Here is the input.
Amino acid sequence: MRIDGTYMFPATLSRVYAALLDAEALAQVIPGCERLTQMGPEGPEGVAFECRLRMNAGAGSITWRAAPARRPTSVRLAFHGRLPAGPFAGRGVIDLVEQEEHTLGAYALELDAPNLAVRQGQQIARELCELLGEYLLRTAPDEVAVTTPVAAPASSGPRIMPQQVRTPRGRIVTLPRLADMGDLPAPSAYWAQRALWMGAGMLLGISAIALALAVVRRLADHDA
Here is the structure.
C-alpha cells in the first residue's frame, strides 16, 4: 500500500525538522500514546523510537527509526509494530520545502498492513500532520508571529503535559493514561470528531502537490 500527500506546516523548516526527531513532540501528536522512548541520542544513522499505545480496542506498539536523508530537508523512516487490528511494517520519506514562515511537507510511505485500508492509512497520515501542525503552533516562540494557511479548530480539553526521564538507554516521555485524561475524548471518538474538519487541508490543492514533487525531483537530480 502506498500513501502520499502534502501538508503546509505553520512553522519554519528548522522547527518542523527538529520536531520530527524530538521525543516530546512525537509523544504529543501520536493519538493514544502512553509512553515513548527515544533509543539513545541522535547519531549519523538517525534516531530510533519505541511507542506504547493504549486505545479502546486494546494495546499496541510502534518502533521506528528516523534518519536524515538530506539534513534538514528530508527524513527517511522505517517502522514496524502491532495494533489491535494486527501487525504492520513500512518505510517512507518526508521532504520539506520552506516557504517564508511556513514549510511544505511532502510524504510518501510504503505500508505493509493487510488489515488497513488505503483510505484509513491516508486519514491517519493526514491526522498526524494536523496534530503536528497544532503542536508547532502551540509551542511557537513568543517572538515569532506565525499564521496558519489552514483553519484549525481550537483543541478541546486541557493540554496534555508529558513527563520526561533521561536514562543511559535514552529519553523516555510518558503521557497520562487514557483513564486519567478526564474529559478528553476517547481515541475512537477523537478520530471521528477531527475527521469532520480534516478536509480543510485540501486547500493546498493540486498545485501544492505538483510543487512538492517538482522540488523533490530537482533535489534528486542535483544529488545525482
Q: What stands out?
A: Residues 145-161, 176-210 have pLDDT under 50 and may be disordered. The first helix runs from residue 13 to 20.
